[in-house]
Amino acid sequence: MSQQQAGRPGSGDTGSQKWDQFGDAYDQPTFSGTPRTYVIASMPRSGSHMLGHLLHGTGQLGSPLEYIHTQHLATWQERLGEPTRAATLQAVMRRRTSPSGWFGVKAHWKQFADVMDDQEVMAVLSPQDWIRITRSDKVAQAVSLVIAQQTKAWISFHQAKGEPVYDADAITKGIRAFQKQESAWDTFFETRGITPHVVVYEEMLEDPARTVADVCARLDVPVPAVLPEPGTTRQATAVNAEWRARYLAESGSR
Ligand SMILES: Nc1ncnc2c1ncn2[C@@H]1O[C@H](COP(=O)(O)OS(=O)(=O)O)[C@@H](OP(=O)(O)O)[C@H]1O
Ligand SMILES: OC[C@H]1O[C@H](O[C@H]2O[C@H](CO)[C@@H](O)[C@H](O)[C@H]2O)[C@H](O)[C@@H](O)[C@@H]1O
After folding, report:
1. DSSP string across 101-152
2. To test ligand 1's pocket by mutation, which of 19, 42, 45, 227 has the most ligand atoms within 8 angstroms of CB?
3. Average pLDDT of 193-221?
4. Considering the domain boundaries, does residue 127 fall inside one?
5. Ligand 2 lined by 94 (C-beta under 6 Å)
6. Prediction ipTM score
């Protein structure tokens, strides 16, 4: 199996081989028109890769990955040999837009904030709609963040490096960072009069078919007859539950 096949959405491969976000597993047929872009406005550890992979699986909504992440855009530029970041994004759009015309991007606030003042990139991106994903349980989200930071396993395709060590201060820092990022997205949408479609992680887990159907309705594409497999799998283990319970117990006693 090639590295790209190993990371292919829906392959069920959650082993040690890295998925390849730059590889052809996420390519669409070459698109020659003007794409319509939607942005998944996300937060770290909010289930954004799961949502992006579910939408990719519809075959209608592009392959929403982190194309505007500064480092990834630089990698794309190097690989595609384009002269500018804007031209690079255009080239990525040609390969990652579905025949429906939708091109999707997933961006955490910081990733978006890093490019939002680049007028050339924004003119190419030109978002037409927004899907916001949030996670209700901020303690669980922060526990997930701290474990990912420590083990470097950001997605189920990554092999964890080492055992995580409980760190209450890091969890608190994560919760505060999420509050700031949520509020930054709130302000961004409010000041521009945008009402994003909202996906809540916990609701997506309860009823992924509904989540996919609602996004398809919002973006006006047919709902797939069969729910796509997300490809990514849940990373949390009993350790996450233990840390969460310990953090809540200790915060209550402070
Ligand atoms: N299929 C499926 N089912 C249930 N949960 C899933 C699934 N795929 C991803 N996830 C969980 O999503 C959390 C990671 O969120 P993100 O993809 O937004 O993370 S990030 O972009 O890398 O920061 C992270 O949450 P935790 O499980 O709490 O760590 C992932 O496990
Ligand atoms: O492979 C999953 C993702 O892994 C990287 O991103 C993650 O790491 C960042 C810190 O280095 C963190 O800020 C971010 O929340 C994580 O998603 C990679 O940069 C992503 O492109 C990739 O999707």
Report:
1. SEEEEEEEHHHHHHHTT-HHHHHHH-EEEEEEEE-S-HHHHHHHHHHHHHH-
2. 45
3. 98
4. yes
5. no
6. 0.91
